Amino acid sequence: MFLIRNLTRVSPTTSSIVTRFRNSGSSSSPYTLASRFCTAQETQIQSPASSNGVDRSQYEGLRPTREGEKPRVVVLGSGWAGCRLMKGIDTSLYDVVCVSPRNHMVFTPLLASTCVGTLEFRSVAEPITSIQPAISREPGSYFFLANCSRLDADAHEVHCETLPDGLDTLKPRKFKIAYDKLVVASGAEASTFGIHGVMENAIFLREVHHAQEIRRKLLLNLMLSDTPCLPKEEKQRLLHCVVVGGGPTGVEFSGELSDFIKKDVRQRYSHVKDDIHVTLIEARDILSSFDDRLRRYAIKQLNKSGVRFVRGIVKDVMPQKLILDDGTEVPYGLLVWSTGVGPSPFVRSLGLPKDPGGRLVHQDHSIRPFFAIFFCISSLIPFVLCYWPIKVAEREGKYLANLLNEIAKANGGRANSAKEIELGVPFVYKHLGSMATIGRYKALVDLRESKDAKGISMTGFVSWFIWRSAYLTRVISWRNRFYVAINWFTTFVFGRDISRI
Ligand SMILES: Cc1cc2nc3c(=O)[nH]c(=O)nc-3n(C[C@H](O)[C@H](O)[C@H](O)COP(=O)(O)OP(=O)(O)OC[C@H]3O[C@@H](n4cnc5c(N)ncnc54)[C@H](O)[C@@H]3O)c2cc1C
After folding, report:
1. Residue 426 burial (CB < 10 Å; 0-12/13-18/19+)?
2. Within 10 Å of residue 418's Cβ, how many Cβ atoms?
3. Among 124, 153, 197, 262, which residue's CB has the most CB atoms within a 10 Å radius?
4. What percent of the chain has a predicted confidence (pLDDT) above 70?
């Protein structure tokens, strides 16, 4: 049975690869008959220069779809919105092509836990092909490890660049992809507010490789701080962990870090236990999206865990210290920057209407003006932009998947064919609440529509239990759910893994 299933799965892909190779030598027509790819020469024959003056001859890529082929949805980004959308797309109606600099989705709410070893990195990374298996099975569906650098909405093409990731395995290559429907779900970028030295000296917390860098540096500093004859000041600097930004990410990370210090460092690095500290720097109020009662509780608990709060604005960041606006110098060994997000250069480069914050704003089809998911149906360009939180991104992804499926069923899947189709009820986002963990088996749960509305809000161990249960059930695959549960169990019983690998 297994063999039969695999044979049937493999055959269309294999035949398509065979045809691609067979056709690759005979390029007299702009696009070879069966291959979905076109070469640079073929592109040149078809169109020597793009409408925007960019020489297209350097681009190879995926040609436009033809009659008899499924229309193509191109998804830029493999975050919450993009992945939820890909999961919901009916692959009997569309081919799905995803372009992203990472081949997995990051389960961001649990990312802070990986920095200190509560969870392993694999537990929070979900491969795209397990979210949408058609990407690895269907002959017309692909994942490309690349960044999208340009959108040519007139030509229905996106221009991309491969991501060699610092290794010289392949010279950077440019290619283009023709789309029938485009979803821009490329998220946001960490904000530095142009502060000097942030990029060079601080570590962000947005991707798995950031968490790996934080963990490596934290453990390195712990080990180096035990070096014989190290001046006291230098030891304290190495062991000073500074977090800039008192939003949910900064607070959750500070909570994880203080848990690690209280439990694991005190037991296993007892020589340094009195020198290691966490400082959280925030310009305004921490956790400003929560009400006063919850915020006060969080501050009290974090204080009890040894987290120091400093109110101030960072003016300059140097390799071993940062300077605040009042001139205070704060030496650090580890600096984590979490001051929110802003539009990425790609979103900035899109010639589409934006709000003063640089977020794309909705035009024709009423979907909340958040940023990052942008949906383009031929000449009609409704777009949704999502920002924070996950619930917005996910629901927009689900909504768009359903909408695209309906459009394809009404024969509007192909480019320029959906103009007359009724797009149905616009997306409306309803806020269902927020949660944040603060360490020491404590969390905040606020199930109200806004912080002034009536409803349930709670703190403490029960909230922490709700937080953990909620996120465990929302981990995408059973494999990762299992990993997360096992990691939590082993951390509880044996403590965190402190080996610096
Ligand atoms: C540590 C952390 C904890 C968080 N915790 C919570 C929480 O508890 N609750 C909550 O609601 N929210 C939380 N968030 C916020 C939440 O993760 C975001 O709201 C959500 O990820 C937004 O989804 P998105 O799909 O718009 O963007 P993202 O998830 O950021 O995905 C963007 C994708 O686009 C890709 N990309 C970027 N540029 C390009 C390009 N040029 N071409 C192609 N692809 C590109 C990226 O690699 C990525 O795959 C947290 C965020 C972080 C970092």
Report:
1. middle
2. 22
3. 124
4. 81
Instruction: Among 160, 388, 472, say which to mutate for ligand 1: greatest number of ligand atoms within 8 Å of CB.
Output: 388
Pick the range with the lowest mean pLDDT from 47-56, 138-147, 359-368.
47-56
User: How far apart are the CA of 15 and the centre of ligand 1, in A?
Assistant: 37
SS3 at position 330: strand
The protein residue with its alpha carbon nearest to ligand 1, atom 35, reads 77
Distance CA 455, CA 451 (A): 9
Closest CA to 237 of 167, 340, 318, 136: 318
What are the strands, taking DSSP E only, across 6-152? 37-38, 60-62, 72-76, 95-100, 104-106, 125-127, 142-152
Kindly give the distance from the C-alpha atom of residue 428 to the centroid of ligand 1, in angstroms, as a whole number.
Answer: 20
Q: What pLDDT digit, counting tens, does each position of 69-126 carry?
A: 999 999 999 999 899 999 999 999 999 999 999 999 999 999 999 999 999 999 999 9
pLDDT tens digit sequence for 220-265: 999 999 899 999 999 999 999 999 999 999 999 999 999 999 999 9
CA nearest to 76, candidates 128, 117, 139: 128
Coil, strand or helix at 336: strand
CB 488 within 8 A of CB 468: yes
d(CA 323, CA 244): 12
Q: Which atom of ligand 1 is nearest to the CA of 148?
A: 42
- Tell me which residues have their CB closer than 6 angstroms to ligand 1: 76-82, 99-102, 108-109, 111-112, 147-148, 185-187, 205-206, 248-249, 344, 346, 372, 386, 388-391, 393
Q: What is the pLDDT of residues 396-424, one digit of tens each?
A: 888 889 988 998 898 888 887 766 777 77
Tell me the average pLDDT of the chain.
82
Distance of alpha carbon 57 from alpha carbon 47, whole angstroms: 8
User: Which neighbouring-strand residues pair with 283?
Assistant: none
